[in-house]
User: Fold these one by one.
Assistant:
Number 1:
Amino acid sequence: MAVWRELRRSGAIPLGQAVWAVPDLPAVQPLLERLTGFVEAANGTLLLLAAKGYAAGDVVRLEQLYAAARQEEWSEFDADCRKYLGELDKEERLGKYTLAELEEEEQSLDRLRRWYRELRSRDLLGIPATTDSSTALKLCEEQFETYADHVYAALTSPSD
């Protein structure tokens, strides 16, 4: 189970029953070493292969599969960013300027930041969606700062 989780977390793509693929890049070497350690600790067997496509199109197809998996993850991330921005807009419309709400929104932003780092760490091919998602996260951070300013202003202004 640890091997499966590590493969999923790393962004490896499943090709079939117990067959996974990762790009042939130096950044993948630590992953392969961790997997080997997990399997050896469990007295299991692991077969690592450096594969090349039979035809020129095979390499392209594998890169497309990997990029599609990353694109799907980035799309989900972007949808969560839009949801987060909608939540901040709602709190602004309601004038809900409390420390409890601010803390909740900060926790949500921290979750987005962690998720972004995770996705970025496995996007070894650097697909274009990475840049779009970086922009989306920055917008979330800016909106949060604006909301935080409004909360602090509401809390420090004298009540009537």
Number 2:
Amino acid sequence: MRCSRRLILSEGSPTDGLYVVLEGEIRLGPGRCLGEYGVIDDRPSSASAEAVAPAKLCFLSKAEFRRLVERHDRVGRIVYANLLHYLVSRLRGKDKELDIFLLAEK
């Protein structure tokens, strides 16, 4: 999918699926995904994402995502394992940022 709109996700708005950045400039950069929280917990987006320049995205709607992981056990395990790995690495990065922030305050 070519991204023709600048705003891809809006914080607080419902998410419609999972986006993987293939090319282009989005603040998160290539190889990152957007909407991953929403496909897992059905809650509104926790952040906004805006295309800085034309971008190429891979999009998987919530319904397609759920169908895929429910119908194909092996694929579902791989997808969830990769999402878990991705989310844990982001969480570890945020932990380090928080540690640095707390140390700077002291």
Number 3:
Amino acid sequence: MKSAVYFASVRAYSDREATTQKVQRLFDAAGFAGGITPHDRTAVKLHFGESGNDGFISPVYVRQVVEKVRACGALPFLTDTNTLYLGSRSNAIEHITTAVLHGFDFAVAGAPVIIADGLSGKNVAKVGISGRHFQTVSIAGDIVAADSMIILSHFKGHIVSGFGGALKNLAMGCAPPEGKRAQHNARPFSMPEKCTGCAACMKVCPGKAISMQMKKSVINQETCIGCFECMHACPEHAIDINWETEIPLFMERMVEYAYGATKGKEGKIGYMNFLIRITPDCDCFPFSDAPIVPDIGILASKDPVAIDTASFDLVNQQQGSAASLLITLHQPGGDKFKGVHAQTDGYRQVQYAEEIGMGTRAYDLIRI
């Protein structure tokens, strides 16, 4: 059977088609209220954006979801987890401060911010999944404690997973640092022939696994935590990983974590993907690059596999922007995410998620 994915275009022709109204209508059309009961502690899971980033979902849109959840008699709270890398969200104090500076305060978004894995990422619950790679996964304690969830995802590119949508938001977003580390597992290596000795990689390494030897970067594979921050930071692209062997396994581990984040909440999770300002990289970057395709719209579904598949298809149906990081595959039908990060295959996410029973890639796109 196909899963229903509801779609609202960004196009508007009157004041009755404001994006805020479309968010509310999508919530209703997808039947999210049916999975929320009175007095539920409902986690509204999203990404508050790294300091300097402005590609995240607008708190004005988030408020529409919060109001719908509260109309169900539930208790909504905005949430995310602490990061593995150093930045403005590696502990709850700085994380909440960043969220508020980005507009996610009660006055705008209408709900309190609670960092789900606690002050320093130690509020952790073990969830059994019996997967190919994990028998148990580490999920943020307040995600597990929540009675229901609405997953709000900014759909965009990613240097390792190809794209980030509902599945990645569940997986990395609901995991504390120890869970993020377990998913990554892969270890980057430096290429001395390209390294100029600028030490940019060493400065961003949260595990202090990088040293400069003979004016070249050296990564200690034993102490490396696999966060890939060095790859982002290197201006010479002198750090790499084994894409053929490491990345498919990374995606499978990531999907198993996504599955673990949903355990115990069957029928009580709704998903919305925002295909607006589709940047080439994730909102963990301290900046936002130009979109790779035009804005498309917003999707809602109860099936995380179907909504990510539909999002992937809609992005690839667009003409790519020449004034962006998109290098190839600009034509409609081309895989835009491979056009940005040629060595990734984001579609493996939805394939494996379907294999382990998280949903189906078959969908009906219903326009509202």
Number 4:
Amino acid sequence: MQELLEILSAMAAQKDKVRDRRELLLDMADRVVKAVSQEFSCKPDEVAILLLSTDGRHLRFVAPRAFAELGSIPVTKRDSIAVGVLARRAGEVINNVPMVKHVSFFESIKLRDKPAPIQKMVTAPLLVRGQAIGVAQISRKGDNAREAGPDFTPADLRRAQELLDSVAPFFAEARPSPY
């Protein structure tokens, strides 16, 4: 973890020297996804990071990288799990995602040979000094809950929140304006 923080710090320090701040942000997200996926024994495409636009109206994907060009989620979208967590500034564990009304459009996008639905998910806000700047989601995908793997626990949410609290300031620092 310390190594990740040192890398993110070095990357953020270069923000004024890079030509494309958005690419820097995406590169930082790739590093965080790698660490999170290792920590939670999941695949990199099971980790999503969304940052709040500078106007506060949308959540935009920075991970998976393939989603960065696909659009955004308006913060007025009531059936978005990510939007709800952003608004409450409190994370949640859902081990029956198919039974919860949510935005499922992004699940249908092919990142693997065959798209798999999200079965279980931890969603945590990215907080900087108490302000929500985005959301991260760690999921387990599969054709059914058993295939997806073990349930997430409150301890997983705490662990995710600790990890995300440590990286959130780097995202805030590197986020281009406007974004």
